[in-house]
Design goal:
Elements: H1 4-10, H2 12-25, H3 31-37, H4 39-52, E1 54-55, E2 61-64, H5 66-95, H6 104-114, H7 116-121, H8 130-156, H9 160-192, E3 196-200, E4 208-211, H10 215-222
Helix pairs in contact: 1-2, 2-6, 2-8, 4-5, 5-6, 5-9, 8-9
């Protein structure tokens, strides 16, 4: 964990100045922060979907088998890294309009630190719940937006007015990118990696595996 981790939540303005100074000295300084924190939602999701499960109706619990959960966690991890990389690219591309000249690595680092609340929000995946996810993700989105608008003028060394317009542009692209990447990752996992569900009820001491029918089974059913 980097020393800036807590400062982003206690003294964000000072943290952004320190981050920019370290990024100028070591352009890949953000890598440890990104690679480690991106593991939080992936590992939490694996534990939550295999050990805790979620409820769809009554007391029935639904879990994933270990293979399906592992593939889902890997998809989330790769998506988090890819999303950070894409956002770094957009930050770098848009910087030309606002008279800023950060390096590509610095822009990826900025995106990685801005996404810190989302990585931490992944801890909620240990207990899969629709409403818990909505609340936690809402809080993470709000604080990431705050970090973006506070940090971008400081990190890019721009005037406040320029920084706000720049941050607004980045925020719009971020929302579109996050939704597109997450939906694509989940759909790919669901339709192409063939997840296996295990359902249990209080009066049933063993799980029942629920696999999606294969193409051959669907054809036989129609015949």
């Amino acid at each position: 964990m980097t020393p800036h981790f807590l400062n982003l939540f206690t003294h964000p303005d000072a943290a952004w100045r320190e981050i920019r100074q370290e990024e100028e000295q070591h352009s890949s300084h953000y890598l440890g922060h990104l690679l480690l924190l991106a593991l939080i939602p992936a590992v939490s999701l694996y534990i939550g979907t295999t050990e805790v499960g979620w409820s769809l109706a009554g007391d029935e619990r639904v879990r994933l088998d270990q293979r399906s959960a592992l593939l889902l966690s890997l998809s989330v991890y790769v998506t988090a890294l890819l999303g950070t990389l894409i956002m770094g690219g957009f930050v770098r591309w848009m910087s030309r309009t606002f008279e800023a000249r950060p390096s590509f690595n610095q822009c990826i680092g900025f995106a990685a630190y801005t996404a810190t609340p989302f990585f931490l929000a992944g801890l909620a995946s240990v207990y899969p719940s629709r409403w818990l996810a909505v609340i936690v993700l809402g809080l993470a989105c709000a604080y990431s937006t705050f970090l973006l608008f506070v940090g971008l003028p400081t990190f890019m060394r721009l005037r406040q007015q320029q920084g706000i317009v720049y941050a607004g542009s980045v925020w719009a692209v971020a929302v579109l990118s996050i939704v597109t990447l997450l939906v694509s990752a989940v759909l790919h996992w669901h339709y192409y990696l063939e997840p296996v569900y295990e359902r249990t009820t209080p009066d049933q001491g063993y799980p029942v595996r629920d696999e999606r029918p294969t193409v051959e089974q669907q054809q036989l059913g129609r015949d």
